[in-house]
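hiii so um. not sure if this is the right channel but i have a protein structure encoded as tokens and i wanna go backwards to a sequence. like what aa goes where. can anyone help
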């Protein structure tokens, strides 16, 4: 069954009114080429919007280990590297491993929690809008930073990063709340990036340019 995410219903309604207006104008225009162009634009806007805000059902694979880290987003892995730990109040150690996932406008943009645990850290930063596949976007763009601690005391931090087109990050969460791996919590509208930060020693299970699926693909595993 085709489902639209609640995070995008406001946009869908606005686009619906726009398409109705375009259809009305097309009905009044007597120039065939203009009429067809308006109707074509109306159809494209509606279909693209419905497709972008789709919210398919996802289930975490049976038998997944509590130490498994699943992808919080659909997309393609564009970066795997060690970085300086800039969150000393949350992580121990001087370095972290970063796995970055780029979401094209054609990917599902609803995000989910990568592990089960307690929400221990949240920070929203109003930044710029560098294109999301540029690695500088991790530190320059508008983003929300979310940190979780598992029942075993393992920690993970992930960022919702707005891209050049995206202009709104949505996240529905509360500090100190318990969350489950695969549970949906928000989205980034119209092209984006997610960075996942884990302690060194964590086993990375994906490779560069690999496509991943939110709530299903195991991207790493705590050791």
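sure thing!! here u go:
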């Amino acid at each position: 069954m085709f489902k639209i995410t609640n995070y995008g219903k406001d946009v869908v309604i606005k686009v619906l009114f726009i398409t109705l207006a375009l259809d009305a104008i097309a009905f009044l225009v007597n120039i065939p080429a203009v009429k067809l162009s308006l109707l074509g634009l109306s159809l494209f806007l509606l279909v693209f919007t419905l497709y972008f805000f789709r919210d398919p059902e996802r289930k975490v694979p049976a038998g997944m280990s509590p130490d498994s880290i699943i992808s919080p987003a659909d997309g393609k892995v564009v970066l795997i590297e060690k970085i300086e730990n800039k969150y000393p109040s949350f992580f121990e150690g001087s370095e972290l491993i970063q796995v970055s996932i780029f979401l094209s406008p054609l990917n599902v943009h609803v995000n989910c929690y990568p592990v089960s645990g307690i929400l221990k850290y949240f920070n929203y930063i109003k930044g710029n809008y560098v294109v999301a596949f540029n690695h500088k976007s991790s530190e320059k763009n508008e983003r929300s930073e979310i940190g979780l601690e598992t029942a075993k005391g393992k920690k993970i931090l992930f960022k919702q990063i707005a891209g050049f087109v995206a202009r709104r990050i949505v996240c529905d969460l509360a500090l100190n709340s318990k969350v489950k791996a695969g549970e949906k919590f928000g989205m980034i509208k119209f092209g984006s990036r997610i960075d996942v930060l884990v302690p060194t020693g964590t086993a990375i299970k994906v490779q560069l340019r690999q496509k991943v699926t939110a709530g299903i693909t195991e991207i790493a595993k705590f050791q």
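oh and The longest helix spans residues 32-52.
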